[in-house]
């Protein structure tokens, strides 16, 4: 009985060792692959295109708004790999997590309808790097759709074009806020064309001014908020084009 028990123990140790080695190999392979992808991302902080075997990686700049209301540029990374239709989202420092997830779901749906390849044959990884509060949520929907389409089609996109806008199920693009600040961000990041939703080429900004008035022997001063209509193209110096749908916007990125 003792020999039999020892035999089982030896077999257990051998099997456990084999499993451990296999897992170590898989873990090493996974980490190595992730490290290689990280090096690709870190190598170039500008928008770009990378294709390797069954994987395509697209990098695209997004206009965003920082916590203090200033326009900044963020980075969207979309990777499409031959697989079974899985989706992974890795979002850095964004507040509107639920809205962002819904935006990606809708963007993925639209991309599936407009790409030349079957979307369920690919695993998609989305990463957004941004120190911003307003990029999360609907405003990146149009950009995510476009980046996904280019990744699925194994195509490179122009790096001098940026877009903002929500995404609807039929591919139409809806309005967003803070267009002026986002246009400034696009201009500062090197873009010379900024695509916006219909009727969003002009914006209204509210400026504060002090008004003082005499009441009897006293002067009373108050802060007033005054609206000012802004032509964004004239204000920022970047060309603005209104687009109705993702299908229409795609042509500007090719």
Description of the structure:
With 254 residues, the protein is of the alpha/beta class. It folds into two domains: 43 residues; 174 residues, Ribosomal Protein S5, domain 2 (2-Layer Sandwich). Strands 1-2-3-5-4 form a five-stranded mixed beta sheet. The longest helix has 42 residues.
Brief overview, please?
This protein has 254 residues and is of the alpha/beta class. The chain has helices at 2-43, 97-114, 141-153, 179-188, 232-236, 246-253, and strands at 48-52, 55-65, 71-82, 87-92, 122-129, 161-163, 166-167, 173-174, 193-197, 202-215, 218-231, 239-243. The chain is 38% helix and 34% strand.
Keywords:
Ribosomal Protein S5, domain 2; three-stranded parallel beta sheet; 6 helices; 12 strands; 254 residues; 2 domains; 34% strand; five-stranded mixed beta sheet
Radius of gyration based on Cα positions: 25 Å
Number of strands: 12
User: What fold name goes in the CATH topology slot of the largest domain?
Assistant: Ribosomal Protein S5, domain 2
CATH architecture of the largest domain: 2-Layer Sandwich
Strand adjacency order, main sheet: 1-2-3-5-4
């Amino acid at each position: 009985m003792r020999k039999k028990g020892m035999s089982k123990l030896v077999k257990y140790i051998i099997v456990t060792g084999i499993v451990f080695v296999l897992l170590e190999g898989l873990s090493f392979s996974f980490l190595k692959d992730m490290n290689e992808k990280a090096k690709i991302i870190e190598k170039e902080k500008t928008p770009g295109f990378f294709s390797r075997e069954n994987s395509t990686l697209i990098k695209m700049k997004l206009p965003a708004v920082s916590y203090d209301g200033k326009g900044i540029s963020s980075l969207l990374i979309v990777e499409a790999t031959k697989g079974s239709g899985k989706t992974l989202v890795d979002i850095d420092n964004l507040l509107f997590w639920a809205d962002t997830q819904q935006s990606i779901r809708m963007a993925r749906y639209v991309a599936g309808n407009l790409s030349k390849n079957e979307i369920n044959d690919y695993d998609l990884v989305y990463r957004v790097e941004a120190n911003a509060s307003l990029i999360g949520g609907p405003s990146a929907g149009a950009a995510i759709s476009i980046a996904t389409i280019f990744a699925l089609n194994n195509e490179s996109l122009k790096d001098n074009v940026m877009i903002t806008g929500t995404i609807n199920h039929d591919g139409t693009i809806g309005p967003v806020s803070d267009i002026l600040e986002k246009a400034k961000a696009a201009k500062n990041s090197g873009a010379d064309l900024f695509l916006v939703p219909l009727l969003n080429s002009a914006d209204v900004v509210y400026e504060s001014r002090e008004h003082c008035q005499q009441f009897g022997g006293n002067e009373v001063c108050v802060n007033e908020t005054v609206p000012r209509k802004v032509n964004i193209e004239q204000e920022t110096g970047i060309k603005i084009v209104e687009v109705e749908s993702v299908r229409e916007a795609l042509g500007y990125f090719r």
